[in-house]
Amino acid sequence: MEKHFTDSRVKGVSTGTTILAAVFDGGVVIGSDSRASMGGEFVSSKTINKVIQVHDRIFCCMAGSLADAQAVTKTAKFQLSFHSVQMENPPLVIAAASVLKELCYNNKDELQAGFITAGWDKKKGPQVYVVSLGGMLISQPVTIGGSGSTYIYGYVDAKYKVNMTREECLQFATNALALAMGRDNVSGGVVNLVVITEAGAEHIVIPGDKLPTFSDE
Amino acid sequence: MAAASMMPIFSQNVSSKSDLVPDWTRQEVSTGTTIMAVEYDGGVVVGADSRTTTGAYIANRVTDKLTRIHDRIYCCRSGSAADTQAIAEVVSYQLGFHSIELDEPPLVETAAHLFRASCYRYREELMAGILVAGWDRRKGGQVYCVPIGGMLVRQPVSVGGSGSSYIYGYMDSNYKPGLSKDQCLDLTAKALALAMERDGSSGGVVRLATISEKGVERRVLLGDQLPKFSTH
Hints:
A: alpha+beta, Glutamine Phosphoribosylpyrophosphate, subunit 1, domain 1, 4 helices, 12 strands, disordered N terminus, B: 5-stranded antiparallel β-sheet, threonine protease (chain A), protease (chain A), hydrolase (chain A)
């Protein structure tokens, strides 16, 4: 994740990361790589966790500046827990996404962050929402983000199917992230995945040597 | 292998007429594009989309970016349309002459080196990313990549143009050594269709060609014949 650019001409520059979320039958998988780089020349952390928990069954990943991410998610976490107490119910995934959207849209001039929010709630089951740089909020069955995502649009378009099983979706997410990490020099490290279902959230970490390899490697 | 980003960066200033003349007339014509070439045992498959743009206007929606350099050597062009046409003509001429001197069909490697020589020498003026592919008796099917800047490298499979970024993942996961000709055609058609869906500068039809000892077979995949993927 790069330094924060205040120059509006470089707004919309995606940062060194690959993030992904996908809905499967009964849950959702959200994942990312684990590299934090400075300027594409130095890896400042090999094992940073970019999948941030904002509530029991709601996680988000972000593409953008690390400082913005931490500030926004901290605020969102607080607002959501307050909202949850008021409602006396776990928050809806769309509520979490809307909180992020409000923050991104109202502060669009200062912030440079886009979010993928994924989770499970009783009302709609597994969902994935994406909040883009300017503050648009849309729901999609599968979405990718970050600088490494450009290389896997074709793969995701071809391979993603609705109502996959948990294992198929995990394999799909791992393959997609591994392919992106193989082509994007500012994405790398390990694959961090979180599987969210009605039962709860499960973290899976796949280290470099266990990642899938492809024919040219 | 560089993913050449084909955004036009040269624009002519027509200051006094700026309000009367549409924006796209001041943009250089670019083949913002997706091109691909794959080797198989016995030949090569080349493919390209068919969109040429000047800014937001599609100047030609049925472009043929697969250009014949010699009987069994083709090139896929991406970048500035003018630059790539000019280079291809020069190399065709040089290769034709060389072939007559040699009194035998030219090598694909020779064609690739001629492309590289022009692209490297004039690298500051040119914006051209080219894939050279063909068949010759010495080494069979070969694909050479000459991206912007003038590097030369032989690869079993290569993609280029602005749309190529989106299909690296697809290509890495689906290409294996030892594919048959039909598998290569299928891979190329699908990869190009995926890139055309995501890249605004690529689109139209998919043009494919197979080059082998027997010669060149060309085909076109029109709109309804393009591979489809489950849309979401």
